[in-house]
Design a protein that fits this description.
Layout: H1 11-17, H2 25-41, E1 48-56, E2 60-66, E3 76-81, E4 84-90, E5 95-100, E6 106-111, E7 116-122, E8 130-132, H3 135-146, H4 152-165, H5 170-181, H6 188-201, H7 206-219, E9 225-226, E10 231-233, E11 239-241, E12 250-255, H8 260-274, E13 279-284, H9 289-298, E14 305-306, H10 315-320, E15 327-332, E16 335-339, H11 343-354
Parallel strand pairs: 1-7, 12-13, 13-14
Antiparallel strand pairs: 1-4, 2-3, 2-5, 5-6, 7-8, 9-16, 10-11, 12-15, 15-16
Helix pairs in contact: 4-5, 5-6, 5-7, 6-7, 8-11
């Protein structure tokens, strides 16, 4: 059954007052021509991807959306009015959209040319969000609901099994990156095995090929590489460059106010910085630098912090090769000597230096 949309007469209502048997040949041709137009109007527009959403327990607000694989450029804003929202983009190839909700939780939507999806969610239970309309999004909905109450080790286990069951799906690429690569203490060996499995089914998937190159670099430790040059202003308007990280042991770190692991790493690194043990720069991937400034003040974070509002689409983040939240690397004498240093490792470093 085709679903009726506001402003369009879909097949059921059209068929109720017209039937081709009662018309001459020319009128039958016109009938089928009009019918084809109606069928298109009742689905997604060719060359576009559309999202219609309905949220319970939120009347007005804003969502942010970005794409880790270039489906859109930069960061877009979606307005919520009366608990509903609509978002449509040109779409020439399959892509991934990351929607950031008002509570800063993030959820992936998989776009495809001519496709459309409907999102239904309770703002207080976003982990149970339903997305219907395309196969990939319905697969992601099933996985999202499966891991809604699972522990991190269980989530990784479910992600591995999902990839093995669906190596042909772009959802598997996203889950591998999220649960096995970007996760704290990533399972790089397991990720490499899953990537090899997916490449057999999706050899031309650009995101998958980039992930394959990334995991190779991570397995090699990404050590002894020169830190990329950069110039950026912090939230107070001060200019920061590579020179801020020259000399003693230094760190550059990504974090966000909605990611507890990243805040843990930030707080530990801040203690090291305040005691003069290390140099550091943090990059906050929140969308609003004003709120970031308040967070830094409220929590006595004195590490120079950059926030350009572009989240993971930030040009600086891409220049530095930082790919997740949290992410970091250690620099000594301008050379990257360690990648994705854990909070526990930072704490152990602090204890050792305090002795």
């Amino acid at each position: 059954m085709l679903e009726k949309q506001e402003g369009a007469v879909c097949f059921d209502s059209f068929f109720s007052f017209i039937h081709p048997i009662n018309f001459p040949l020319m009128k039958q041709i016109v009938y089928f021509f009009l019918l084809s137009l109606l069928l298109v109007s009742c689905g997604g527009r060719s060359g576009y991807f559309k999202i219609d959403g309905r949220l319970l327990h939120i009347n007005q607000g804003e969502l942010y959306v970005y794409s880790p694989d270039g489906a859109i450029e930069g960061l877009d804003t979606i307005k919520i009015e009366g608990g509903r929202f609509t978002y449509e983009i040109p779409s020439q190839y399959n892509g991934t959209l990351i929607i950031v909700f008002p509570n800063f939780s993030t959820h992936a939507i998989f776009s495809e040319p001519g496709g459309s999806v409907e999102i239904k969610a309770d703002a207080s239970h976003l982990k149970e969000m339903e997305v219907k309309g395309t196969d990939d999004n319905e697969l992601m909905t099933q996985f999202r609901q499966q891991v809604a109450t699972a522990s991190p080790p269980e989530q990784e286990k479910y992600a591995i099994q999902f990839v093995k069951d669906h190596p042909e799906s772009p959802v598997s690429v996203f889950l591998t990156e999220k649960y096995l690569v970007a996760a704290n203490g990533g399972s790089y060996k397991q990720a490499a095995e899953l990537i090899a499995l997916m490449l057999k089914e999706q050899p031309k998937n650009g995101s998958l090929n980039r992930l394959a190159m990334q995991i190779t670099a991570l397995q090699q430790g990404n050590k002894e590489k020169k830190m990329p040059k950069f110039t950026a202003k912090d939230v107070n308007g001060n200019m920061l460059t590579n020179a801020n990280l020259l000399g003693k042991e230094s760190y550059i770190l990504t974090w966000s106010s909605w990611n507890e692991d990243s805040k843990d790493a930030l707080n530990t690194l801040n203690t090291l910085y305040q005691k003069g043990y290390v140099k550091a720069i943090s990059i906050c991937l929140d969308p609003s630098y004003k709120e970031v400034k308040k967070y830094l003040t409220d929590n006595n974070i004195t590490i120079p912090t950059i926030c350009d509002g572009e989240m993971l689409e930030s040009k600086l983040v891409k220049t530095l090769g930082l790919t997740s939240i949290p992410d970091n690397y250690k620099i000594v004498n301008g050379q990257i000597t360690a990648r994705r240093v854990t909070s526990n490792t930072l704490r152990q470093r602090l204890i050792k230096l305090d002795l």
